[in-house]
Design goal:
Mean pLDDT: 80
CATH class of the largest domain: Alpha Beta
Low-confidence stretches: 338-343, 373-380
Shape: globular
Largest sheet: 7 strands, mixed
Strand content: 15-25%
CATH architecture of the largest domain: 3-Layer(aba) Sandwich
Order of helices and strands: EHEHEHEEHEHEHEHHEHEHHHEEEEH
Structural class: alpha/beta
Distance between the termini: 29 Å
Oligomer: single chain
CATH topology of the largest domain: Rossmann fold
Number of strands: 14
Number of helices: 13
């Protein structure tokens, strides 16, 4: 029986994330949960390495777990990699991929499942220039625009021959009630396209603001996937035109629809990205256990090699060299106004990262310095 530890996070951005993360791991494990001795460690702010280290050590020393699953920003992996090696216990890291994973964080005991937000940002910047013009504006909130993904947009823009002519970071202070204190800052520089990085209510307020401003409503919009979730678009209604978005998750695929339906039944709500990657990680752990038992393969080797067909299609943990991962496929979608949930985010086409992006990722992964800022509010 595998002794599995799960560190549940606390978040100011994703409601009920702690419960949903744990439930999603269990859901992914399926019947394998019957052969698992599960131990749960409540996380704290999780943005500080010492909090993560403390939670990991408690599970290892007090519960003697053999595997740990936790959500984490890649920026924390550098400091954690030594602890993971010293303790000798494998760790499954569920990450949104806000930063690239540095080469110095690589080790044989770290298994990473990523939502690839950095690559989404790069592709948004690149496609914005290719489709709409060289002059790009980036609009984001402090909550959503931290880490390295804003810098990734800039890399993509530059690689396509464009230029980031304006950047607006709104709601820098928690007490600000609305995302835009001064709309003039967004339209003071001529731009061909606006790349948007908002989520939740801030995304609703942004698109409503755009819909009420004739000058802004004429400019094409491209968004990170969180900004065009069905609940956001339903609240916005017809106040804005269609919005393009890019993600590694094609929600129109059959596997995605099955997962969304199961989540609606089990958790009574739409899954957030952490729920998705926690579920996938549970699936991969269950498969590795099966392979290890039936084929006599060492469990860590089975974890490294296993691959499952999940909600995002073929799913596996990243290789030891994350830049050498198999070519990512992105889905470019466009919101379509309507009254039904399924009338939003219709798939339009599939895209792959150009070779120049992989070259840049390889160069940036050599460094331990992160462009951008570490967000104090999204604390997982």
């Amino acid at each position: 029986m595998l002794k599995l530890g799960v560190i549940t996070p606390r978040s100011d951005c994703f409601p009920r994330l702690s419960r949903n993360f744990l439930d999603s791991v269990k859901q992914g494990l399926g019947t394998a949960l019957n052969n698992i001795d599960l131990h749960v460690q409540a996380g704290n702010t999780m943005s500080r390495e010492r909090d993560v280290c403390s939670a990991i050590q408690q599970l290892i020393l007090e519960q003697e777990v053999e595997l740990i699953v936790l959500p984490l920003n890649p920026a924390s992996l550098i400091d954690l990699s030594r602890l993971i090696r010293d303790e000798g216990v494998p760790v499954v890291v569920c990450t949104l991929g806000e930063n690239l994973i540095p080469n110095s964080a690589e080790n044989e005991l770290t298994f990473i499942n990523s939502f690839h937000l950095w690559q989404c940002g790069w592709m948004l910047g690149y496609q914005a220039v290719k489709r709409f013009g060289r002059r790009v504006t980036l609009a984001c909130s402090f909550n959503d625009g931290g880490y390295g993904i804003s810098a990734a947009v800039d890399f993509g823009v530059d690689s396509a021959g464009g230029r980031l002519v304006n950047t607006l970071v709104s709601r820098r202070r928690v007490q600000e009630d609305r995302p835009f204190v001064d709309l003039g800052k967004l339209i003071e520089v001529e731009t061909d396209v606006i790349v948007v990085n908002y989520s939740g209510q801030e995304a609703v307020e942004f698109f409503q603001t755009v819909g009420n401003c004739p000058d802004l409503n004429l400019i094409p919009l491209m968004s990170f996937p969180f900004g065009v979730e069905p609940d956001v678009m339903q609240k916005v209604g017809g106040m804005t035109k269609d919005v393009m978005s890019i993600s590694t998750w094609d929600k129109t695929a059959h596997s995605a629809q099955s997962y969304l339906g199961a989540c609606a039944s089990a958790m009574k709500q739409r899954p957030n990205p952490y729920s998705l990657i926690a579920y996938e990680s549970g699936m991969l752990i269950a498969e590795a256990l099966s392979v290890s038992e039936t084929e006599g393969v060492a469990f860590n080797n089975a974890l490294r090699c296993c691959r499952m067909n999940g909600p995002r299609g073929g799913t596996s943990f990243l290789p030891n060299n994350p830049v050498a991962e198999s070519r990512l496929e992105f889905t470019l979608s466009c919101t379509q106004q309507g009254t039904e949930t399924d009338s939003y985010n219709h798939s339009q086409e599939h895209l792959q990262l150009p070779a120049i992006c992989y070259q840049q990722m390889n160069e940036l992964s050599q460094s331990e310095e992160y462009p951008g800022w570490i967000n104090p509010y999204l604390i997982v």
